[in-house]
Each structure stands twice: as structure tokens, then as C-alpha cells.
Amino acid sequence: MIERRLDDHTAVCGQIEPHEIAGLADAGVTLLVNNRPDGEAPNQPPAAEIEAAARAAGIAYRFVPVRYGIGPAEIAGMRDAIQATGSGKLLAFCRSGTRSALTWGLAKRAEGVSADEIVGLLSEAGFDPGPIAHLI
Fold it and tell me: Mean per-residue pLDDT for 10-25?
């Protein structure tokens, strides 16, 4: 798994497997956000398995699937997760990390972070902010 750091408290990555989650706790992850809807790919572990592994490792878990685009519900779910993280570490994942990163960017914008800062942070992490540019 390759994590890409967005800020001091947030990283994103592609699909994770249940057996990897205990190691996330050891790395300081305190909240795991699953932005991948169940059933996107045949080999994808179900959200319930990811949640069970997270809870067993002592990591809080949020299921905020991004199915048809990033809308108000997804932004609100990510904002809630960011706020719940406090000084801990949030790891969000989807198939590649892109949906998670862009959802995070829109949630941070909703919190009042400047568009320029969001574009900079996403770009530094290797994500193209173009798909959400009109929203930030």
C-alpha cells in the first residue's frame, strides 16, 4: 500500500486489505475512511470486513462511499471524519486514492481552507485538482 500525505493529519491510498489494518494502527492511524462502494471490483473486500478489522485494531471507521461523484453528503461525511480525527491520523482510501483526495479537498474547502492551498496540497501529493476546480 502506498500512502500519499495530504497534510499533517491526513493521508490517502488505494484499496487496503483487512490483514493490513493492524499495521495501520501501529503507524498511528486513528480513523479509517472507506470511500469505495462495495461491489466495484470482484476481488474487493467488503466494507464490513474492513470495518471489523479496523475495530479489532482500535481504529475508528467511517464508510463514506463515493458512487456517482462527490456531492454534499460525501463532503459532509469527510468533514465529519476530519473533525473526529482531531490530532490523530486519518487514512482515507478508495480504488486508487483519487476520490478520497478530491473528497478531502472539497471538505477542507467547506471548512474555509483557501482554494490555492487545496490545489497546492493536492498537487504536491500527486493528484490533479482539475476535476474539482470548479467547486473550489
Answer: 95
